[in-house]
Amino acid sequence: MNWLFLPGGPGIGSESLHELVDTVDVPGCSWMVDLPGDGSNVNAPGAPADPYDLWPQVLLEAAHAVAHPVFVGHSTGGEYLLSVPALDGCLAGLALVSTAPDASWIPVFEHMTRNNRLPGVEYATTRYLSDPTDDHLRRVAVESAPWNFAAHTVARGTEILARLPYNARAAQWSEANFDRGYRSAWWPSTLPTLIVSGSADRIVTQTLWHDKRFHTPNTTWRVIAGAGHFPWIEQPAAVHDAFAALVGQIDNRRTTD
Q1: Which N-terminal residues, if any, form the signal peptide (predicted)?
Q2: Hey, is 199 helix, strand or coil?
Q3: By CB count within 10 A, which of 152, 184, 185, 226 is most buried?
């Protein structure tokens, strides 16, 4: 199996998922995927002048590049995966971590931020909006750590967010062209699928997964107790076990097909 790890953001590099890769320790090869123009994947040889014209359909290119691909999408990365129906025919498995089936999580998030104000975020956001540089985007992300992580992991989360490459152009493209109009374009009916939700995720509400449309026989939903938007940081053992079960499900399907 080839595991393709797609980060959230956008505008945040796939380095944000390094701890997830180490935690799940899945068999096969693990690949970090940055869409063209995102994270550190900038100015690649042969890349188009406007790489965002390829989003999110370019995900098919990554899936077709390897045998038995399993896509793992975190946050907005999962939304991009659910926006490309053609993936259903070429994946061996799918894992959706801290993501959502539509954009109705955004008003919930905005309500949370009003009730849990972080002056550092407000200042950094004002600065970013007036001068949208990569470094200013980094500061917004770093200051938001108390929303992303449980209290006892905020310090570690802050270190993680501070070390990442950021890409303001990617964030701007998604805000203008994707985020608020997002609705999943497909749902797998036979593909082994895992949903991982932190019970204390304050960024993307995980209550949207209660809809029975997403409880197909091929789908497992694991709610990780006490975990936030990066659930492998607070509860690595539980996240590891969830992925181990997905590996078993994929193996069983390959054996019976």
Answers
A1: none
A2: coil
A3: 184
- Tell me which DSSP letter residue 12 carries: B
* pLDDT per residue as tens digits for the range 19-38: 999 999 999 999 999 999 89
Characterise 223 by phi-psi region: left (phi > 0), alpha (psi -120 to 50), beta (else): beta
Residue 95: how many CA atoms within 13 Å on its side-chain side?
A: 29
Contact 141/133 with Cβ under 8 angstroms?
Answer: no
Q: Where are the domains of the chain?
A: 2-112+174-256
CA distance linking residue 233 with residue 235, whole number of Å: 6
The candidate with the shortest Cα–Cα distance to 196, out of 58, 68, 23, is: 23
**pLDDT tops 90 at residue 81:** yes
CATH of segment(s) 2-112+174-256: 3.40.50.1820
- pTM equals 0.96
Nearest of 180, 104, 117, 106 to residue 147 by alpha carbon: 117
| Contact status, residue 73 vs residue 173, Cβ threshold 8 Å | no
d(CA 128, CA 137): 6
Q: What's the CA gap between 35 and 138, in Å, rounded?
A: 18
